[in-house]
Design brief:
Mean pLDDT: 81
Radius of gyration: 25 Å
Number of strands: 9
Low-confidence stretches: 129-137, 213-221
Strand content: 15-25%
Largest sheet: 4 strands, antiparallel
Shape: elongated
Distance between the termini: 42 Å
Length: 221
Amino acid sequence: MALYPYTLQPVALNLTEAEFQQAQYELFANASPSFGLSSIKTKEWIIMAVVVILAIAGLVFVSGYSTIIFWVMLVAVVIYLLVRTLGFKWYVKKQFEKQVSEQEMPDEMRQMKLGVQKHGLVMAMPVNQPGAVNNQMRGMQMRAASNQQAVIPWSAVKSWDETDDYIFMMFEVKGQQGSQIVPKRLQAQKFPIDTVRQHLQEVIPTRGLNTENLQPPADKI
């Protein structure tokens, strides 16, 4: 079995609000359907080709004011292509940005630290306020100590995905659901991103977040 590097102690996440939104956008862009020319179906290409051929034939064989309709046909095809690609992409991005702007990053992520061990991903946060021991951090119940700590076993991961800058994972432990963002910039602080990826691939070979795999959360006591 390959030997992977692990952390001696948790590394500060230091996730900012801007990073939180950027991570969500990258995940959205990674999972959203393509809006390029390759996304246009064969049937649509055939219809547009027929329209273009008819328009060109009309311009060749018809003269005078009657050619206006054929110019309109060509312009209509161009407008359809722009709306079908750039227009849809712009609309979906605006809708996403509107939703993200209404969300706030959980306060605990500002102080969270992450570690990587053979048995799972370690999540730690200092206890600095009364009652903090009972808080749930991204779906995990923390243990009482000078630092709250919890471990996400690799086997508890239900799905995960990856972009150029982040690794995302969804998990379920003892009926509690949660998710975690791991910025790849942590690698500069000797956080073993490759080890995280290796363990995730071992339990879930196929990337892609799938919330349907998670069971409804247990009622809080």
